Amino acid sequence: MSDHERPGAGVTLGLLAAWMLHDAEELATGPRWLTEHLPELRERFPGAPEALWRAMEDVDRREFTLAVGLMAAAVAAAAVAGHRSGGRSGFYQGALDGFGLHGLVHLAQAAAVRGYTPGSATSPLVVVPFTLWARHRLRRAGVLRRARVRDAALGLALAGAATAGAHAAARRLLRRSNRAQRAKAARKTAPAVGLMPWPFASVVLML
């Protein structure tokens, strides 16, 4: 592979940039869209499991934002791995394929609801074109791994699992933070005899 053919930073680190553009759309529209359209989705897809609807109801902006941050760390790691390896990294190529398939899922979701869904605007404009372009550059450099149906299914499954895992981790972190804040507030509001004016403290000690 010559230096001219070697995939540049646009191909590898560009994955993170493309992902950030895509998730900026999801972050801006996702929580509000879910709140407004959840009743409609329940009616349109009555066969979906109740656990799915409950999970969607529980997602708030803080969880959504934190989950996006956690996913950013994973995508950044994949992009850096791709950059350091000249695009050869299986981690990077798997993340790239998962990103592209994720965009196709967004388009399928928009088709299913016959309207806009969060992420469906940047999918045809950023996600899918970037993935095809990056794969083309990797192929020209001779480092693109052979695409197989099994690998595509695995990439899609990993992308879904990573998203679900990020939301689960975000929910746990927020619960832990909320408990710490409540405990701190309770300590601040708890009566302290040593800080009471001495006449009141003496009455308490006499009881």
Provide a compact summary of the structure:
This protein has helices spanning 9-12, 14-44, 50-58, 61-84, 90-113, 122-140, 149-189, 198-206. With 207 residues, it is mainly alpha-helical.
Describe this structure in words.
This protein has helices at residues 9-12, 14-44, 50-58, 61-84, 90-113, 122-140, 149-189, 198-206. By secondary structure, the chain is mostly helical. The chain is globular and about 65 Å long. The relative contact order is 0.13. The model is unreliable at 193-207 (pLDDT under 50).
Which H/E pattern describes the elements? HHHHHHHH
Radius of gyration in whole Å, from Cα? 24 Å
Helical element count?
A: 8
Unreliable segments of 5+ consecutive residues:
193-207
DSSP strand (E) fraction? Answer: under 5%
**In which range does the helix fraction lie?**
over 70%
Shape: globular
Number of strands: 0
Draw up the topology in text:
Blueprint: H1 9-12, H2 14-44, H3 50-58, H4 61-84, H5 90-113, H6 122-140, H7 149-189, H8 198-206
Helix pairs in contact: 2-4, 2-6, 4-5, 4-7, 5-6, 5-7
List keywords for this structure.
207 residues, globular, 8 helices, mainly alpha
